[in-house]
Write the structure tokens for this entry.
Amino acid sequence: MSSKHHVIIVPGLGNNIAALMWSTKGWSRDRFIPHIFDARWKTEEPGLQPKLDRAIALVDELTAHGETVSLIGNSAGSSFVLNLFAARKNKIHKVIINCGRVRAGDWPWHTFAQATKDSPSFKESVLRSEKVISTLSKADKKKILTLRPLFDEVVPPYTVTIPGVTNIVIPSVEHVVSMSLYLTLFRGKIFDFFH
């Protein structure tokens, strides 16, 4: 692994870049350089591919000098990073799915249709990531970690986990709180996986 380890973090539908910058501001002390990728979820460019193309260009730029790049997807960003990994497997060190859907599925009170109604590109990302999951090799799966709380009122647990990867449940509840905890208080789980 190179001396610089870049981490591209893709936010969820709220696209709260400022919160992610705050959550990761101390990461450089641990040798990780965060890059918050503006997914523009509710701005159609049109569709998913232009967003992925911008992210692919960022991966190519960061790896051009042999530096290490890992990915973290928060909530809606989880399916996005899985799709990005599929496009650049040979350039991506590790992938973290942080409380996010990588396949369609419903809670009785919050359906996939409700979750994707304001962002067709998010829907496209989830449906595409389902196909990616079916193509993952054993080597690919060793690069992926999923994180989810004991209870997430927004994302059903079976839409987060991927058979054959490292799937971790952390003792927390609630969607936004849990995502934040994994990037701050429990970030050691992420850093350990990166090493």
Summary: Residues 5-194 form a domain with the Rossmann fold fold (CATH 3.40.50.1820). Helices lie at 17-23, 49-63, 77-87, 112-116, 120-135, 138-141, 175-183, 187-194.
